[in-house]
Amino acid sequence: MPVRGISALGSGVALASSWRLGDEAFLGVARHEVAHALGLGHCGRWDCALSERPHPMSLADRPNELCPGCMDLWDGLCRGLAP
């Protein structure tokens, strides 16, 4: 399976590839990697964009939304980054 994205936890740097992905699948990969770059780890929920592989769904069907718990963490990070 090709690598779709990479980031180091908390690095502030993320890379995501859209090669052979539809818009929704790419959005999920990008959100996953940006969240890692901002400091969020993997989520144990399979219906979250931050889920870790192996994933029960194909990449094309992978969720692009964060679960409520990860969304709370995301919102907290965003509030901390706001001027």
Structure description:
- There is one protein chain.
- This protein has 83 residues and is mainly alpha-helical.
- It is globular and about 35 Å long.
- β1 (5-7) and β2 form a beta hairpin.
- It has one domain (5-81): 3-Layer(aba) Sandwich (Collagenase (Catalytic Domain)), CATH 3.40.390.
- Strands 1-2 form a two-stranded antiparallel sheet.
- The longest helix is centred in the middle third of the chain and has 15 residues, at 23-37.
- The protein has helices at 23-37, 68-81; strands at residues 5-7, 14-16.
Brief summary:
With 83 residues, the chain is mainly alpha-helical. It is built from two helices and two strands; from the N terminus they run ββαα.
Quickly list its features.
Collagenase (Catalytic Domain), mainly alpha, 2 helices, 83 residues
Question: How many strand units?
Answer: 2
The CATH C-level name is Alpha Beta
Distance between the termini: 40 Å
Rough shape? Answer: globular
| Mean pLDDT level | 82
The CATH topology name reads Collagenase (Catalytic Domain)
Q: Classify the helix fraction into a percent range.
A: 25-40%
* Residues in β-strands, percent: 5-15%
Rg result: 12 Å
Could you give me the name of the CATH homologous superfamily?
Collagenase (Catalytic Domain)
Biggest sheet, in brief? 2 strands, antiparallel
**Structural class given helices, strands, pairing?**
mainly alpha
Count of the separate structural domains: 1
Spatial strand order of the main sheet: 1-2
* Annotation field: number of helices: 2
Q: Can you name the CATH architecture?
A: 3-Layer(aba) Sandwich
Give the low-pLDDT segments. Answer: none
**What's the helix-strand series?**
EEHH
